Every structure is written in structure tokens, then in C-alpha cells.
Amino acid sequence: MRLASARLVAAALMMTPAVLAAQDAPAPSAQEKPTQAYGEDHPACLEWTDGCLVCARRADGAAACSMVGAACLPAAVSCLQGR
Hints:
Elements: H1 2-14, H2 17-24, H3 38-41, E1 45-49, E2 54-57, E3 63-65, E4 78-82
Antiparallel strand pairs: 1-2, 1-4, 2-3
């Protein structure tokens, strides 16, 4: 009985707030574009962010983006640097 209780406590401790928030988050709609695609609709923007990813337009026009942290909650995308 004690071992079962210890396993339940260990499982509960693994449910971090970030995991719980991800489980409760609504699924993105099919019409939402990823942050990386923001540059396609905003050709004058050279660098943009959603608070988690930072993307910059490369010389060939494609987006180069940073890696996102596991616990980051993205916000609305905004342009950091225009032409």
C-alpha cells in the first residue's frame, strides 16, 4: 500500500504547471499560421517574435527562427524590426 501511495505522489509531482497548462490549452485553429510564417504576410518585417520564438528574414527571404523553450507560452506575433 505504501509503494502505491509513493507512486501516486511521484506521478502528481511530475504534473508541472506547464504540463497542466498545455493540457488545458485549446487546439490551434486550422486558419492560424505558425510564427515562422508571419514573414510571408509581412514582407517589410525583417525580424519578428511571439515572445518565445524570434525569427529573422534571411538573405534568400526564408525565415530563420530560434528554438523555443519548453515552458514558453507564445503571445501575438509582433514585428521587431522593419525595413
